[in-house]
């Protein structure tokens, strides 16, 4: 499957917000995403998408003009898809002084278990390196062992516990972080090369400058 990692843009918000709603409570508002994309000077929002291939229409449907508006909107399994592609995951990174903070990361439930969350994490890791961050930090639910395992793979370690961090159920969060020293950079290079070997991936995010607004 061909995948593209790229900066989030305004037309992506509808799909991103739909994924957010299935993954988090409470979800971010659409206005929050618009702010991150258009106005925030510290935010680097990313999406992972795959191209949408239109179905082959039967002859009768073609004769009836069924394809005339297909380019505007396609529907797959009841989910609206825009012409950019089917967004299967997204993330956000804030660069504030010497610290890069993973503000959010999620994969659509239908696509979990395929390594796409790792692609998003690696993209933001690479972005933090490009931005010359000294550390990357994030929060994760204490019950989310799968995510913690992924973060530890990339060198994150627990540095503290934030009590009642998640508003929907008051669950605690681990504060996890990794220092971007020479050894961490070397290890990341190997992990990133392995991702490229395993996936048909075009990275138009981690080593690209933020688009001008």
User: What's the SSE pattern?
Assistant: EHHEHEEEEHEHEEHE
Record field, number of beta strands: 10
What radius of gyration results from the CA coordinates?
Answer: 18 Å
Widest sheet: strand ordering? 8-9-7-6-5-2-1-10
Proportion of beta-strand residues: 25-35%
Count of distinct structural domains: 1
Secondary structure class reads alpha+beta
Per the CATH scheme, the topology name is Aminopeptidase
Structure annotation, total helices = 6
- Unreliable stretches covering 5 or more consecutive residues: 59-83
Helix content: 25-40%
What would your notes on this structure say?
The protein has 213 residues and is α+β, with helices and mostly antiparallel strands. The chain has a single domain (2-134, 180-204), classed as Aminopeptidase, CATH 3.40.630. It has helices at 13-23, 30-38, 59-63, 116-130, 145-153, 182-198; strands spanning 2-7, 43-50, 74-76, 79-81, 86-96, 99-107, 135-141, 157-162, 173-179, 200-204. An 8-stranded mixed sheet has the order 8-9-7-6-5-2-1-10, sandwiched between helices. Residues 59-83 have low confidence and may be disordered.
